[in-house]
Structure formats: structure tokens, C-alpha cells
Amino acid sequence: MIPTDKIATVVQARLSSTRLPGKVMLPLAGAPLLQRLIERIEASVLKGTIIVATSNQPSDDPLEEFCNEKGFRIFRGSMDDLLQRHVGAGESMNAEHLLKIPSDVPLIDHEIINRVVLFYFKNEGEFDYFSNLHPATYPDGNDVEIMSMAALRKANVEAFHNFEREHTTPYLWENPDKFKIGNLEWDMGSDYSMTHRWTIDYPEDYQFIKTVYDRLWSPDRHFTIYDILNLLEKEPEIMQINSKYAGVNWYRNHLNELKTITPDQTRDPQ
User: Fold this and answer.
1) Helix H or strand E segment including 35
2) What's residue 86's pLDDT?
3) Does 249 fall in a domain?
4) Largest Cα–Cα distance of the chain, in whole Å?
5) Own/partner pairs, 18-22, CB within 8 angstroms, 24+ separation
């Protein structure tokens, strides 16, 4: 049996995004993005308990007010040290395992969450950290990472590079000699990680995601990764909205420091 009562799903969120301020509160199908994301995570039967992890800065006070209004659990911690913030959020829930899902993936498929968590626990004891990101094969914006709190605490003590603390988990997957690492590849046998961008960081990303929601959202059913792919096949012009950012991620700024990332896993904006 999977101990979902020991899993904390941490959704990191803040209002002071530099490229697209307030993106987590942008409207999607009549509700803020963060709400729609949490609804999609809630559809996973293996997600455990969801908690929003935001900063302790006054700029995120409205986010706390919103979470309280909606009944979402919330933890507030360091603005820039996301590793420390995640540890604090997990410990506030007395969790033994932490499921990390960023707030910029409002198209995430709940079944992908289930697959990652199920594989992690079916092979209990074999992994300290398990994800579908290293290497990534799913469309960008289906990011799921699960790890033991013991491993995360160890990383919190030992990680000292800024990028390791800002991005939470690099110290884990960059040190396979210290941690047992596993990865789930997309069962379609394809790699869409550099061609299909479903995450939000730029205004064009929001327009893409909003268009998908306008086409597919229903109060009765959560659309899936395959529904999105079918939509893009029928209306390829939608994919062009943010195609210039496909494959763009934070790796590009740290290629000289990252040991397990190759240049073909990232690129600069066009």
C-alpha cells in the first residue's frame, strides 16, 4: 500500500516572477492559474496532501490570503532558497516523502503524477529521488519529482551552489554517487521535451495555455496530455504561439556547472 498520508505535495509559488509577474493568479477558465493547477493535482489519487510553499515576503501576502480563502494549506519560507523552503514545507506536514510540482505547470496530467509516484513506491527503497525529468521526455510542463525527506534534508545541509538552492533538487540528481536516482520515460517512446512547451514563464506561454484551457476545459472532466496533443494536431497554429521558447529552461545558464546536463537539453530564446 502506498502511504499517501506520508506524502506532501509541495507547490512552490510566488507573485514576484520577474518575466511574468503575478502569473500564478492569471485567469484560466474563470479561475486563477494556481487554483486550476491544484484542481488538476487533486485529481491524482497518489498525491498525498497538497501544500503551497510561498515566500515570507510582504509581496506574497495576497497569495496567503487567497490560499486561506480557498482552504489551501500554505507554508511561508525563504524567497530565494527554494531548497530550504521545500524542507520547511515538508517538515510542517510531518512528511516522509515530498512530491515537488512547480506552480508553472497548469497543464499537468494527474495520471503522470500517479505513474511517477507509483513507480517510486513499487520499487520502495531503490530510490532516494525519482522523477520524469532526468532526462526529460514528456512535453515541458509535466514536471513531477518525488524524494525522501531524508534525502532532501541531506541536500539542504550539503548544497552550497546558488543554483542548487534556487532550483531545490539539482544537488540530488547531480550526485548519483550519494543518492539513488531513478527516472520515468514517456511510455509513448517519444521525446517532446524540447519541442512542446506547456509551462509558463513568458506572456506567449500564458496565451498558449489560456488557448488550451479555452478549448478543452470542462467542469466535469480533466483534460489529459493526449487531449492536448490531439488539439495541437488539429490546430497546429496553437503550438506556434510560444514555439520560440520551446526548449528554453534554466539549464542554459549553468552548463559549465551541471555535470548531468548536456547542451542539447536546453537552448537560448530565439
Assistant:
1) helix 33-42
2) 98
3) no
4) 49
5) 19/201, 19/202, 20/200, 20/201, 20/202, 20/203, 20/205, 20/206
* Residue linked to cell 509551462: 199
User: How many domains would you assign to the chain?
Assistant: 1
Dihedral, CA of residue 117, residue 119, residue 125 and residue 130, to nearest 10: -60
Residue 67 is assigned to a structural domain of this protein: yes
213: how many CB neighbours lie within 10 A of its CB? Answer: 19
For residue 157, what are the domain limits?
Answer: 4-183
Mean pLDDT in residue range 241-262:
96
- For the chain, percent of residues with pLDDT exceeding 70: 100
**What pTM value is reported for the model?**
0.96
Residue 107 CA, distance from chain mean position: 10
**Tens of pLDDT, residues 36-55:** 999 999 999 999 999 999 99
Closest CA to 212 of 201, 228, 224, 226: 228
Asked if residue 217 lies in contact with residue 257, where contact means CB atoms within 8 angstroms, the answer is no
Residue 145, phi-psi category: left (phi > 0), alpha (psi -120 to 50), beta (remainder): beta
Alpha-helical (H) ranges within 123-202 are 149-158, 162-166, 170-173
Read off the CATH number of the domain in which 70 is found. Answer: 3.90.550.10
Quick check: is 252 in a domain?
no
Report if residue 226 sits inside a domain. no
CA distance linking residue 156 with residue 86, whole number of Å: 9
| Residue bearing cell 508553472 | 104
Q: What pLDDT is attached to residue 270?
A: 77
* Length of the chain counted residue by residue: 270
Q: 121: Cβ–Cβ under 8 A, 6 or more apart, which residues?
A: 2, 3
Examine the pLDDT at 184 and tell me if it is beyond 90: yes
Question: Contact at 8 Å (CB) between 258 and 251?
Answer: yes
